[in-house]
Specification:
alpha+beta; six-stranded antiparallel β-sheet; globular; 9 helices
Length: 286
């Protein structure tokens, strides 16, 4: 897809996945997928939607949010059966999702060795656009943004309903960007949210701190905000690896509170302090 291509000439596929939990690298899987494609000059959008048998239990926290149960997905197609249809559906379009890194991360993991099939696609994060184009909303979860813009949030946290909400939000974003003179596909993809100048330094320090703990096999005290429930907990972790997905990094670590290996989103680690480095306690606000 040429970077000089005008927005009005682009096909867009808005998609969403519901999952058994937050972390594909720890075994969570897609349990519902939906997509709506809009093509230039065509009035009727195309729709793809299916529940997916994740072949593992849906976590209590996920089911509480998306209302999808193990009974609902039992016997449904697996993601391996659905992906060929999804790839055919999105071919030649730009991809749009709300908090795109999450959805793309699960799709890439499901594709496995074939994840490079997505490398040439433009991916647009409607959440990033919302933060830039709708300042002052406060909470930027999809339902709150939709309600603020007088868009129905009925059926929130189900894949097809979230796709329809995201599409409606994205259309409003396109109108605003058109007024701002943004006319090319590249202009949308590279719209960023404004961040404090020190944010990059803080992130770099946090990464260095965790990498040092991995090298020296040390444990960290962290303050962690759950991306799922927004609750904040203090816990001790022993980091093992940092993995990077689309637009997001995870720390793979042994969680001493849960006594199991878990994934921790780097951006959800609010504070971290080294338990002991040469007898010196070091703390960093991250």
């Amino acid at each position: 897809m040429s970077g000089k291509l005008k927005i009005k000439d682009v096909s867009f596929t808005v998609f969403d996945v519901e999952t058994t939990g937050l972390y594909p690298y720890s075994g969570d899987r897609i349990c519902e997928i939906a997509a709506v494609r809009i093509d230039p000059g065509k009035r009727t959008p195309k729709t793809l939607h299916s529940l997916v048998d994740p072949q593992r239990p849906i976590s209590y926290g996920a089911s509480l949010v998306n209302k999808i149960t193990d009974e609902m997905v039992a016997g449904k197609p697996t993601i391996d059966e659905i992906l060929p249809f999804f790839l055919k559906f999105i071919k030649g379009s730009a991809l749009v999702a709300y908090n795109a890194g999450f959805d793309i991360g699960f799709i890439e993991y499901a594709l496995g060795r074939d994840k490079d099939l997505l490398k040439d696609y433009y991916v647009i994060d409607a959440l990033r656009l919302a933060r830039r184009l709708f300042p002052g909303i406060g909470r930027y979860n999809l339902g709150n943004v939709a309600r603020t813009l007088n868009i129905s949030a009925e059926g929130e946290h189900r894949a097809l309903s979230d796709v329809k909400m995201t599409l409606a939000v994205f259309k409003k974003e396109l109108k605003i960007m058109d007024k701002e003179g943004i006319t090319l596909i590249d202009d949308i993809v590279f719209v960023k949210t404004n961040k404090a100048p020190f944010a990059r330094k803080v992130k770099d320090y946090k990464t260095r701190l965790i990498e040092k703990a991995i090298r020296e096999e040390k444990s960290l005290n962290i303050t962690y905000r759950s991306a799922w429930t927004n609750s904040v907990t203090e816990r001790i972790i022993t980091p093992k690896e940092i993995r990077s997905g689309y637009d997001r990094s995870y720390v793979i670590a042994h969680c001493h509170m849960k006594n199991e290996e878990r994934n921790f989103r780097m951006d959800c680690i609010l504070n971290a302090d080294v338990i002991e480095y040469d007898g010196i306690q070091i703390k960093s606000e991250v």
